[in-house]
From TrEMBL:
PROSITE patterns: ZF_DKSA_1 (PS01102), ZF_DKSA_2 (PS51128). Its main location: cytoplasm. This is RNA polymerase-binding transcription factor DksA. Interacts directly with the RNA polymerase. InterPro entries: DksA_N, DksA_RNA_pol-bd, DnaK_N, Znf_DskA_TraR, Znf_DskA_TraR_CS. Residues 115-150 form the Zinc finger DksA/TraR C4-type domain. PANTHER family: RNA POLYMERASE-BINDING TRANSCRIPTION FACTOR DKSA, RNA POLYMERASE-BINDING TRANSCRIPTION FACTOR DKSA-RELATED.
Length: 157
């Protein structure tokens, strides 16, 4: 995916600024950084770490579901069997949602590698650290996301 920024060299200049720190950054550190520090190496490392933690948790959940489904016992009582099937269906729906999230997480990590993380896919503008802290897989700025949702509501896409 290619970046839609009007001045790619300025993006590289912004990333070149490194937040001096010997300890891992906190959310507060990220929020306190100025515009010139946006998506610098320290911020990218912070978000990569956060995304990798999410990825690990999702993979562990998927493994636990697989083990749980394999270990399920068979019940002779139809009511017990129905309850088990309902629980399994719910667990599988949850894993399906998590599978979709896993794809988004891996895509976000790839955007970090490509140098596009933190930049709106529609406008090329910064997504903003507050939004990325709340939703690290975001690909659109808040304004672009709102426009996208409004179009979906109007046109049903």
């Amino acid at each position: 995916m290619t970046s839609m920024h009007t001045n790619p060299s300025s993006k590289k200049a912004l990333r070149a600024n490194v937040f001096p720190s010997t300890k891992p950054l906190t959310e507060a550190d990220i929020v306190e950084m100025g515009e010139m520090d946006y998506m610098n190496d320290a911020q990218l490392a912070f978000f990569r770490s956060r995304l990798q933690e999410i990825e690990i948790n999702l993979l562990q959940n998927a493994h636990e579901t697989t083990v749980h489904l394999q270990e399920s016992e068979l019940f002779a009582d139809p009511a017990d069997r129905a309850t088990l099937e309902e629980e399994q269906a719910l667990e599988l729906r949850t894993r399906d949602r998590e599978s979709k999230l896993l794809k988004k997480v891996r895509s976000a990590i790839a955007r970090i590698d490509e140098g596009d993380y933190g930049w709106c896919e529609d406008t090329g503008e910064p997504i903003g650290v507050e939004r990325l802290l709340a939703r690290p897989t975001a690909t659109l700025s808040l304004e672009a996301q709102q426009r996208h949702e409004k179009r979906q509501k109007l046109f049903g896409h």
